[in-house]
């Protein structure tokens, strides 16, 4: 639903004969309005994070991100992503393999079910784990008896994060692998390659860039998840606060510069994600040049 | 002249798509714009339509210069290579489009669309969408849609390219008859010479942006004016050393030049089968190809290789067999022109005087 | 698509499908089912009273209206951005194209505080609007802006590929039939974009209704006025009213699944059209 956003921005559609293009004035006006809109909605907030972060100087900035609470939040965030992302990656590859390489009943239903977490509000994503593992939840009493803490601790945070970022890798790989079909794998099988050999030597090289972007995007969402984690974390400073929660706490305590300083780390993560995406698109565009010239229609 | 094109040129980047092309088209003619892919035919058609503007030169319709008239006002119908039907509209709405956006009277639109549905045999398909039609039906819709606003000139870009070979022949005949019935001046682009020869009243041969020859198909075939036309039209072998061919040894002009020989200019067979054995040379069959209605022979004659046809009724010849080869005539090719030369040895071996 | 497990030379069908279904079940399906089972612990009256309480109803209204306005705004501006990116050339186009994905990659809490900082009465833009009597932050307008930010990539990224693949000949056909630019856009281009626009709209709307992180900072969270439904669930959880939170969550989930169903239907329909072409 929200994945599969790898588009190639080729120049093919932007070189247009005069009669199927707008007049220069209209083009300029539309471009300016679009850029203005993006500026107001996207660029300005991005810039404001850094401006606010450095408002009280670099010292405050450094102090904010080296504060023990911030560091422990960063560690928790990294640890959470380190568990959630590999889990969802393995799932994503398995699901994409099953769906794209085989025919079976209920495939469309399965795809819809994989999309399900996209349609669930993050707050509800957190709630469902409270209902299962909270003090009054299904397993609450049993967990209590055995002294196992899931809610308001790392396991709960990992569960909620995994749920929210569940579809990303699968969604990125699915269209890619569906488009590639099964011919290459069948060729490999006919040449005597065995199961994992086919995957490692034929499939993986074909999907590695899409997989990379899927993982990076999944990671960005895992590190940045706020609503779901907010519900299950319990907000214990230095213990169950992830980076986004730490940002919130600082913000609500009116420590704006510190809050934005920590936020700027997350912005860098987002920017890195976009850089990887751009790189991946560039790589895939290289592999399939837009060279289809059918007849002289396209000769110019 | 209905349409006149004068010294039109068009360059895309460094690619000269059309260079200094001039021609005229009489009213009511069906013109085939023929040439190899990438030769500038489509660009020329798009310049006529107004979809491209020429870098230099002028286009006249009914004696009026139309360079600055936008395509919307030229009164030209255009059938695109892939038909470019409006996918979200049914057949009726597709055909009616040109009239609807002119805000024509509703009754008038219905009448015109019905008329075209009958004309194109699409009655009963009005409510279908393009994806529910066959290739041939889509082409008919594109055709009807282009005709609906009663254009003065109809342009068709490779109208048969996207259709199965089987249906293509039928559609060609259908289109030719239909255009004759309506009497509309039409220009169609094709890279298929059979198509051009069969359908067109007159052909324009275009290559590398230049107009090579204009004329009725038969005239172009029998009297090619340039080396390109001689080799492009009809089946032919290019002969690098024509001065070695029997009957052409003493033609001084052939030294260093090339020649083109059509299979129908060549007679191949055993000695008794050849009409003028004294004018024939010995050769060897290299390959025999079955071409459906006849056999095609690839024959080595000295240093040259020529193609010839052989009827299926005749005794078959085998590869490696020695045969007699008689070249009736050939086109001698120079930079600019193609000159036909007859074999001078072709005289009756035993003249009988009555 | 139908048909049994067609025999394939490729290995791993059982393993990959088995793992997919197993993982999907324990991570998603079983936890989600919990919401439905937990709510049934309430009597019908209790449930009904909870989900139609005045404050809850007000939160539905705020969530629906702001998500709808934001999705509508994205419908227009998303199309505009996609159009400009696909059809025009200008310096920095690649960079602008990457920026469109930012809302997708940026943590929602960061977006929330950043937008609040800009649109608050003392912020860069907020301070310009105060003299005009327009208050953005801590009003439904603020919520809408946050949701526009969140929903933008959905519309752009669903429309963009369709726009990219549009056949130029179809537009030229309209030109040859006498249509000028505006008529061509309205009658030929726009109808071809409608399925993808609807999908993008529905995605942005569905995401907007459930959005939490970017909204809580800018909304001001005033009950009956700027309190969104996800926040209300959060509040109930903080008061340990799990049954109440679950009841409201059930209403939201039902709405979301309905949206998901509609979106999938649209995608399925446009795919079918494309493949029978």
TrEMBL record, chain A:
Subcellular location: Membrane
CDD domains named among the record's database cross-references: TM_PBP2 (cd06261)
Coiled-coil regions, chain positions: none
Keywords noted in UniProt: Membrane, Sulfate transport, Transmembrane, Transmembrane helix, Transport
Taxonomy, superkingdom: Bacteria
Membrane-crossing segments per the record: 25-51, 76-97, 109-136, 148-170, 211-236, 256-276
Domain (ABC transmembrane type-1): residue spans on this chain: 74-277
Membrane topology, from the record: Multi-pass membrane protein
Function: Part of the ABC transporter complex CysAWTP (TC 3.A.1.6.1) involved in sulfate/thiosulfate import. Probably responsible for the translocation of the substrate across the membrane.
Subunit structure: The complex is composed of two ATP-binding proteins (CysA), two transmembrane proteins (CysT and CysW) and a solute-binding protein (CysP).
Record's protein name: Sulfate ABC transporter permease subunit CysW
Lineage: Bacteria, Bacillati, Bacillota, Bacilli, Bacillales
Encoding gene per record: cysW
Automatic annotation (TrEMBL), chain B:
Annotated ranges, domain ABC transporter: 3-233
SMART domains documented for this protein: AAA
Recorded superkingdom: Bacteria
GO molecular function: ATP binding
UniProt cross-references to PROSITE patterns, sorted A to Z: ABC_TRANSPORTER_1, ABC_TRANSPORTER_2
Keyword ATP-binding: yes
Pfam families found in the cross-reference section: ABC_tran, TOBE_2
SUPFAM superfamilies cross-referenced by the UniProt entry: MOP-like, P-loop containing nucleoside triphosphate hydrolases
Protein's name according to its UniProt entry: ABC transporter ATP-binding protein
UniProtKB/TrEMBL annotation, chain C:
Location in the cell: Membrane
Transmembrane portions of the chain: 12-37, 57-86, 98-120, 132-156, 188-209, 242-263
InterPro entries (alphabetical): CysT_permease, MetI-like, MetI-like_sf, Sulph_transpt2
Protein name: Sulfate transport system permease protein CysT
Task of the protein: Part of the ABC transporter complex (TC 3.A.1.6.1) involved in sulfate/thiosulfate import.
A Pfam family assignment: BPD_transp_1
Alphabetical list of CDD domains matching this protein: TM_PBP2
Alphabetic keyword roster: Membrane, Sulfate transport, Transmembrane, Transmembrane helix, Transport
Key word Kinase present: no
Classification via SUPFAM superfamilies: MetI-like (SSF161098)
Membrane topology: Multi-pass membrane protein
Keyword presence, Transport: yes
Quaternary structure, from the entry: The complex is composed of two ATP-binding proteins (CysA), two transmembrane proteins (CysT and CysW) and a solute-binding protein (CysP).
Domain of life the protein comes from: Bacteria
